[in-house]
Write a structure and sequence with these properties.
Blueprint: H1 2-21, H2 26-39, H3 42-46, H4 51-54, H5 59-67, E1 71-85, E2 88-101, E3 107-122, E4 125-129
Antiparallel strand pairs: 1-2, 2-3, 3-4
Length: 133
């Protein structure tokens, strides 16, 4: 009987450990959101927005707006985060992008810029809060 109880407890702990390891960290979420944007998966990037923001813009509108960007995002790398407390952080990500300069005869220019993003932790995880346009 003790072996069965031990085996059951061990199995339960392994399941719990597997579930908790699947939850993304803030750093992983910030990078994953940009990876979706780079791939044009705007509906998936939309899921990282705060629930309050999603009430102000639907997924279709968000996708159209993101798809109309004048740059082609190419690569994202995480730089750092600065947290005011355990529920509010500014995440710095480096974005490499391609810009075609119409005034220069369509010359292509690849640049990298650092973007600072506000992330808020709610009960069920971290969410990106865009700045007002």
């Amino acid at each position: 009987m003790n072996n069965r109880v031990s085996l059951l407890l061990l199995s339960s702990l392994l399941v719990l450990a597997a579930c908790s390891s699947q939850e993304q960290t803030l750093e992983e979420k910030a990078v994953a959101r940009w990876e979706h944007l780079i791939k044009g998966e705007f509906n998936l990037a939309y899921e990282y927005l705060t629930p309050g923001y999603r009430q102000t813009e639907n997924v279709e509108s968000y996708g159209l707006r993101m798809g109309a960007s004048q740059v082609e995002w190419q690569e994202v790398t995480y730089e750092k985060k600065e947290c005011e407390d355990e529920n509010l952080c500014v995440v710095h990500v480096n974005i490499q992008y391609l810009y075609v300069m119409p005034v220069a005869g369509g010359k292509e220019m690849v640049q990298t810029t650092t973007i600072r993003e506000n992330w808020i932790k709610k009960d069920d995880g971290w969410y990106y809060l865009p700045k007002k346009s």
